[in-house]
């Protein structure tokens, strides 16, 4: 039988500790050949806090862990006996994730583990009112015209001498008003 990926409900902010508990349970029961991987899907996000750039691991699906396993009575018991795990996600019976869903999750997980460049978290959308907090246009107010997440750039329309002018700024140079 092929292993499939299943989603388990767990309390939010307890995903990592429950993952470790499940891994210990699997090892204690000798089920490593039936339950091969337990994941808490995360992605790396780059944020500016207090003027300093920080790279954070953000859980993609808070309150859930994902398990690659062969579903049988032994594996169900191991999961049910692990404290903190709620139920399998599925209508009446546990249903495995679709292949395209797990490929997306695994790609993000690989990106987080391999140290690839983190995704930039930009909190602005087109039409938002912003104030420039750094650079030559400091303290100017404007409107977001375009967001380019891949480059971390936000195009803002500001008024200079009563003329609308578009300027490109890095996302951390702006604050919402």
Explained architecture:
By secondary structure, this protein is α+β, with helices and mostly antiparallel strands. The chain folds into 2 domains: 117 residues, Alpha-Beta Plaits, CATH 3.30.70; 48 residues, SH3 type barrels (Roll), CATH 2.30.30. The protein contains 3 helices and 11 strands. The strands form 3 sheets. The chain has a 5-stranded antiparallel beta sheet with strand order 10-9-8-7-11, with no helix packed on it. A 3-stranded antiparallel beta sheet has the order 1-5-2, with helices on one face. A 3-stranded mixed beta sheet has the order 4-3-6. Strand 7 and strand 8 form a beta hairpin. The longest helix has 16 residues. The radius of gyration is 22 Å and the shape is elongated.
Task: Describe the structure concisely for a colleague.
By secondary structure, this protein is an alpha+beta fold. The protein has helices at 15-29, 73-81, 99-114; strands at residues 4-9, 35-39, 42-49, 52-59, 64-69, 119-120, 129-132, 141-148, 153-160, 163-170, 174-176.
Span between N and C termini? 56 Å
Supply the CATH superfamily name of the largest domain: NusG, N-terminal domain
Q: What is the CATH class designation of the largest domain?
A: Alpha Beta
Oligomer: single chain
What order do the SSEs take from the amino end to the carboxyl end, as H and E? EHEEEEHHEEEEEE
Number of domains: 2
> Helicity, in percent?
10-25%
Radius of gyration: 22 Å
CATH architecture of the largest domain: 2-Layer Sandwich
Strand order of the largest sheet: 10-9-8-7-11
Structural class: alpha+beta
Mean pLDDT: 87
What is the name of the CATH topology of the largest domain?
Alpha-Beta Plaits
Number of helices: 3
